[in-house]
Amino acid sequence: LVCEWGDCEQTFSLHSCFSEFRAHVEGHIRTLLPSYSSQHSTDPIPRDFECPWRECGWLNPKDTDELIRHFLFHVVHTRLKTTGRVRLESGKFNKCVLEAVSRNLVPDVPEKFLCEWMDCNLQFNCPSRFYEHVESHVMSVDKERIVNGGRKTTHVTCQWTGCMTRVRNHCKLREHAHVHTREKVYACHVCGGMFASMSKFADHLSRQNTSECKYHTLHCAFLVKRELKTLSVSYMNNIKCEFCDMTCPNPSALKQHIKFRHSTLRPYVCDVCDYRWAFQVL
After folding, report:
1. Per-residue pLDDT at 75
2. Gap between the Cα atoms of 154 and 169, Å rounded
3. What is the pLDDT of residue 23?
4. Sign of CA dihedral 143, 15, 198, 190
5. Which H or E run contains 73?
6. 273, 174: one domain
7. How far apart are CA 64 and CA 45, in angstroms?
8. What is the Rg, in whole angstroms, of the alpha carbon atoms belonging to the chain?
9. Shared domain check, 258 and 129
10. Exposed, middle or buried, 237 (CB in 10 Å: 0-12/13-18/19+)?
11. CA atoms within 13 A on the CB side of 23
């Protein structure tokens, strides 16, 4: 873990010193916001503010809380990029060939992180502390025993407001909780993209390998260079959703993704009850 605040280059161990790294960055935050404590500050936003994290350049916080969330998201982003780099160095994946200009750009976080676990409703400005808090809820869920087809099995139930998902164990429940917290587990250290699973990260890397495509290789005698380039580009998902990390191969696919994943419109109503769907079920 490398601190990239201004000229700082202090390093920390990925696996054993994350809390020290976070505390180190909070020390930098106090140089701008002297009253900073427990994820809050009463200081005003510094005049002519520009994020001091290298290659970030963020300029427009609406208030001090958003400024703190932005700084502390760099802490999480750095951990994810380091984790991704370690996996990439295993030699099992292609290297990212995208431009590095976005490697330290983090998403805007206009609102506090809200825990909606049953009867909780705590709010956080620090994403990593929010994730740790939700994980403590997950690990405290009691196992339930059920009889299914004459066999006794155990499961744990998600207690996030409005969710009753059942999974086999706490490990699966922790993975499921990422759906609610939107926590990512890997990031690309080259381009900065964040991913919710190892498979999505691997997909991000493999789709950039234009020397080979799903159907042909560069050595194929039946494809001219232009045809191969067209086929390779169409095979890559290079249109990014503005609401999440999903990439799509064409505008039509992006439109469908936004409709089913992000739109709140539910035009189709059940004839029996009041349940509504985003798409028609035939």
Report:
1. 94
2. 8
3. 93
4. positive
5. helix 64-88
6. no
7. 6
8. 22
9. no
10. middle
11. 5
Query: Which residues does residue 123 pair with via DSSP β-bridges, in sequence order?
Result: 114
Please tell me the total number of residues recorded for the chain in this structure: 282
Predicted local distance difference test score (pLDDT) of residue 241: 75
* Residue 16, C-beta contacts closer than 8 angstroms, at least 6 positions apart: none
Number of domains in the chain: 2
What are all long-range contacts of 261-268, with beta carbons under 8 Å and residues at least 24 apart? Answer: none
Give the number of other CB atoms < 10 A from CB of residue 44. Answer: 10
The pLDDT, as a whole number, for residue 65 is 92
Q: How far apart are CA 262 and CA 242, in angstroms?
A: 10
The structure tokens 């490398």 sit at 2
Is 6 inside any structural domain? Answer: no
Series of mean pLDDT values for 10-residue runs along the chain (282 residues): 91 86 93 92 89 89 92 94 86 77 86 91 93 94 78 86 89 92 90 87 76 42 39 48 69 72 68 63 42
Give the start-end residues of each E strand in 111-249.
113-114, 123-124, 144-148, 151-157, 166-167, 186-187, 194-195, 239-240, 247-248
Question: What is the per-residue pLDDT for 226?
Answer: 38
Tokens standing for residue 122: 């705590």
Asked if 48 and 54 touch (Cβ cutoff 8 Å), the reply is no
Whether residue 5 is contained in a domain is answered as: no
- Domain residues for the domain of 21 are 17-236
Task: Report the distance separating Cα 277 and Cα 265, nearest Å.
Answer: 8
DSSP string of 10-49, one letter each residue: -B--TTT-HHHHHHHHHHHHHHH-TT-BTTB--SPPPTT-
